[in-house]
Amino acid sequence: TIRGLRMYKPLPAGLTIKESGIHGLGLFATEHIPANSILGIAHIDNTSFPHGYIRTGLGAFYNHSEHPTCETVKGYWQHMAVVYLKTSKDISPGDELTAKYTLYENFKD
Question: Is the distance from CB of 40 to CB of 64 less than 8 angstroms?
């Protein structure tokens, strides 16, 4: 911390970004993460942005999978509509964290 202020960290402890076998870069565990752990806010609901959401550092790097290790859960943080990333099973160090994409289903390039 600097003078008692907590510094923003785009990823929670225990996660890193590295090359993915799925696509480009991906989100990976560096330590054991139990099932049903809320990892943080992945998206913030905001209709002024493309697709209606602002992606956070956490939301920008998880890849899609039909057999995901995580799920997205809609909720609120200080009265703002957000989407949390939550583990759906135990995650081991080195595992890639994935979720089934649902926010951008109707988007066309």
Answer: no
